[in-house]
Amino acid sequence: MFNKNPRRNFRRRKNESSDEDENDKLGGGDAGKETEEADSKADMARGGISNECDCSDADEPSASALQSRDINQQSKSSTLSFLDEKDLKKSNKDVRVQSDSDSDGSAEDIPPDSDEGSSSTRSSSSGSSKAQRDAAVIIPDARKIRAAKEKRRQARAQQDYISLDSPHTPGSGQEEGPSSGEQNSDNELDDHERRIEFAPKPKTLRERMTEKMGSDSDESFSDSQEEEDQQMWEEQQIGKGVKRHQKEWQAPRPARQKKMDIPETLPPVSVDVIKKRIIAKLDSLREVHRAREAELRRMQLDMEMAKSSLESLENHTTEEQLRFYRTMNVFSRNLLECLSEKMALINSVELDVHSLYIDQAEVLFSQRREALQEESSQIQKLTYNTDSHSNGDTAGDSNPAWQSLSEEEIGCVPCDLEPTAEQQAELQSKRDDLLKKAQEVFADVQTDFWDVKKILSRFDEWRISFQDSYSNAYIGLCIPKLLAPLIRHQLIGWNPLQAGEDFEALPWYSAVERFCHGQGYEETENMDMTTLPTIIEKTILSKVQGFVELVWDPFSAQQSTTLTTLCKRIQEDYSVFYGEQSKPVKAFVEAVIQRLRSAVDNDVFVPLYPKKFLEHKRSPQFQFQNKQFWSAVKLLGNMALWDGLIPEHILKELMLEKLLGRYLMITVLNESDSKHTIQKCKKIADCFPKSWFIDLNTGSSLPQLQNFSKHLLQIAHALFKDTNGSSSTRKLLSDVLFVLKNIKAHDSIRSITEKCHCEDLLEALQ
């Protein structure tokens, strides 16, 4: 639509000047050659200075072209131009355009038919070009280049220089006419004809030579500057060192004079001070000596172990070790297969035997609860009978069992609940049948795979022959779990609640004990020392825990005594209850606590009746309450047997806060007879563990026994007021003082002795 016709002016050589050019070439051949040689030399010389070289200018040199080259030479050689490459190319392009317009103007002024003018003009232009080339050949040395740089730097500091960014500023003396502007606009390419350069042009030989010469001059200048800076820095450092050295020589003089000052008086030195210092030094030396001795013992032990390992390696060849390991591998696999197969039978027989004891215990528990409920209901009816003609006493007199209760039997503790002879015979018959069945479990198995002694002999051989591999395999940790089925098989008929039966009398115990503490292992460090305690924790206590949860009767003195005796022996021999307890031990202790708590909450029953029924000692109300009271006291004594086995604060909670405070103290406070009250309090005090009062240094007893001690103090004061110091009263006062002395109620004892004047009784007790 809008067609723009580019306007271009081409420099054309007229046809008439072609003949003169040919004559000049033919006539001046020699001169042309000399001129070309001179031109080539000048070009080579200018290659290190000029920035660009146009091929058209080399073929047709003119004064303006030479002038532009001189300008480029000065700007590049002196490195005074700080323009970028685009601005430099633009300035060079402007100079070339101006020179072309000048040459075209001079050619138009000379007519085409004037040969002389053309020749004279040609000769004058050639002469001026030669003169300018000779002048351009001169190359400044490095000193001049450095001076020019310094001058340029000073001019920049004073802002007294011409900026190259604005070549058309006023006063520059370079103003282009309208002809040059039109020619520049004519020579410029259109937007669609311009070529975009995406990569820099390759540098010519002259450009590379120019950059190298410029970099060499800059490096020489920078090297000289760095040498000067280095020399100045060295001089400064040397000066600092000399000054410091002088100060060091001058500073210590007054210090030496101070050190030479001797004080007039010295601190006093006594023999005790010297002795203390010598003792301290001796103690430190002894400590070092002990450490060295311990290190020496460790080194000797390491040497012995190394020697034993060396001897074992020398005595046993690789083939023997391989043969032994293969044999042990086969034996272990066969043993595990055998135990896995027999485990179901062992569990079945063990469960059947355990069920016999559970059934018998449940029968006894149910009989006691039924008898207690029946008797309580009957007495309740007698006590609260609506018949006005009957007050309950006549019913009590009609019962021969209640009438036969004597005075001595009032404070008697009830006996344990035992099974009848028929029940015991039936239980024993079933137990014998199950034990025979248990013996047939390993009837089809060789003794090497069920006899604990023979099994441990295999591992003992491994421990003696190849101790390193034995310890690395952690056999000591595997043996308790490996022997657990065999030990449980031998413990099937063992009842921990029955006296006379001991698990240490079984064959497995002697075999394990010899393996852990046998001959030759007492003095040395044995890696299987914990095997037997681990078996006790994981196997024995687990079986005992089953009896505690389902078979044990806390009201039975015989069962409680047997069970606590077994636990205390295990504690003394194997230390399983000391320190940090394992999981099986914690589970066992928790089972005991829950069973005692259940007995206090569910099985203890001490009824309360009107005082008129309790005044008659042969009344059924008094006898039933008295029986239940002493049953609770019996449970209190059985619970005290667990002192040292279960936590003390839990035992105090069960005995003092629950059993004593909830049941026993109510009965004691409602007792009208002082003699019976003191008898009951004395029996209650005898149940308390002695360890509770060992470290009790306070004036009063335990906080849970405050009401108990106050009631005894009131009874003592009442006795002294009523009887006025008779012999029976002094006997009762002596019993009260004995009870208070056992519970460490010193304040109550002091009050009684001061008010009742019974110091002689207290001395007799001490």
Automatic annotation (TrEMBL):
Source organism: Cyprinus carpio carpio
GCF C-terminal domain sequence ranges: 453-664
Source lineage: Eukaryota, Metazoa, Chordata, Craniata, Vertebrata
The UniProt record lists the keyword Amino-acid biosynthesis: no
Homology family: Belongs to the GCF family.
Name of the molecule in the record: GC-rich sequence DNA-binding factor 2
Compositionally skewed regions (Polar residues) per UniProt: 64-81
Subcellular location: Nucleus
Presence of the UniProt keyword Cell wall biogenesis/degradation in the record: no
Keywords, in A-Z order: Nucleus
InterPro entries: GCFC2-like, GCFC_dom
Amino acid composition bias (Basic and acidic residues), ranges on this chain: 24-44, 83-99, 191-215
Highest taxon of source: Eukaryota
Acidic residues bias: start-end ranges: 101-116, 216-232
